[in-house]
Amino acid sequence: MMPDPLLRAEDYRPAYTSPHADELGIAVVGCGNIAVEAHLPAYARYGYRVVAVCDVVPEKARAAAERFGVPVWTDDLDVVLADPAVHVIDLTVQPHQRLEPIKRAAAAGKHVLTQKPLAVSFDEAQAAVELCESAGVVLMVNQQARWAAPHRALRVLVERGMLGHLYSVLHFYRDFQDFTGSWFVRMPYATTLEHGIHYFDLTRYFTGRMPVRVKAAMTMTPGQLAVTPMIHTVLCEYEPDADLVATLHFNNIVRAAASHRYEWHLDGTHGSASATLDELRFTRADTPDVQHVVPIEGRWYIDAFAASMAEMLDAVATGRPPVTSGRDHLQSLRLAFSAIRSFESGAAVEPLPGGSAGDRDA
Known about the structure:
Elements: E1 2-3, H1 9-12, E2 26-29, H2 33-46, E3 50-54, H3 58-68, E4 72-74, H4 77-81, E5 88-91, H5 99-107, E6 111-114, H6 122-135, E7 139-141, H7 149-159, E8 166-174, H8 183-186, H9 190-195, H10 197-207, E9 213-219, E10 231-237, E11 245-251, E12 261-268, E13 271-275, E14 279-284, E15 291-295, H11 300-318, H12 326-345
Parallel strand pairs: 1-15, 2-3, 2-5, 3-4, 5-6, 6-7, 8-11
Antiparallel strand pairs: 8-12, 9-10, 10-11, 12-13, 13-14, 14-15
C-alpha cells in the first residue's frame, strides 16, 4: 500500500460556498437535532445568510436563533412565508410533516430545500413535486450524501473511466439508531426509507442506472424498540446488457459500537475501489498487487450540508433544476418503496411508482 496522488482534494471537493449567498435569504423551518447540529453549523461556517428560524416549539426556535445569530425566530410559519427577506425554505421537520409546509411555501412563492425523504408515501411525494412545478418554485431534496467527499471521490473514479465497466456496487453499513423515545423508532421502515434512502440514491449516483428488479430481505431482532425491521439486505438487478449488480446491506441495530462500519466497494473491469468516510483505496487490474491509498479531505457532517445548499442557491439563481430535484428524488423513492414491498411480499419486484411506509404511531 502506498500514499498516492491518484486523486487530489480539488478533484472531488464540491463547492461549499455560493456566489449567491448574500442575495438569497434562508429560513430554517424545524429546529430539531439535524438543523442545529448540521444545517445551521454548515451555513454559519460557509457564510450563508440565514434570516429566520421557525419551530412549533418556540423555545427551540429562540435557542437556535441565539446560538447562530439569526435575526428572526418564530413559531408561526406564516411569519416566515410573509417575510420578503426569505427566498429559500430549508425544511427539516419530520418526514410525515413535510407535505403541508411545502404546499404553503409554494403558494407563497418560496423555494424549498427539504430533508429526505420528501414524504412517507409516493403519492404525497409526487403531489409535492407537481404543486411546486405548477407554482414555478424550485423543490430540491437534501440528498447531501451526494456531496460528501468520499462519495464524490468514488464518482470521479467512475467518471474518469478508471474502473472500466462498472459491474458491482456493494454498500456495507453497521450502525445503531434504536434509541428509546426517538421518533425514528416509531416511524415504519425508518431505516430503509428515512435513513436508507441515502444509499438507494447513491447507488443511482454511482451507476447512472435504475434497477429493473429489487429483492429485499429484512428481519426484526429480539428486544428492539423500532416498529419495523432495522436490518435490510437489498439486491438490485439491472437489464441484462448492463452487466451490473448492486447490493446494499444496512444493519442499523448493532449494539456493539466498536463493530460499526461504513464501506462502499465498486468493482470494474479496469480496477476496484473501496471507500470509508475517511479513506479511498484503489487497485488497478493491470497492477493488482499495488493499492493506492487516498486520505479523504472533507466531512459528510457538516461540509456536505453546505454543498447541497450551494447547489440549491445556484439552481434558484440560474433557473435550472437542481441535481437532486424533487422529480429526480422520485426515482430513489421508487427504490426504497420497492424494497419495502419486496420484503412484505417475499418476492422480487419492479421499482414501479407507488408505495408507502404505512401508518406512523405518533
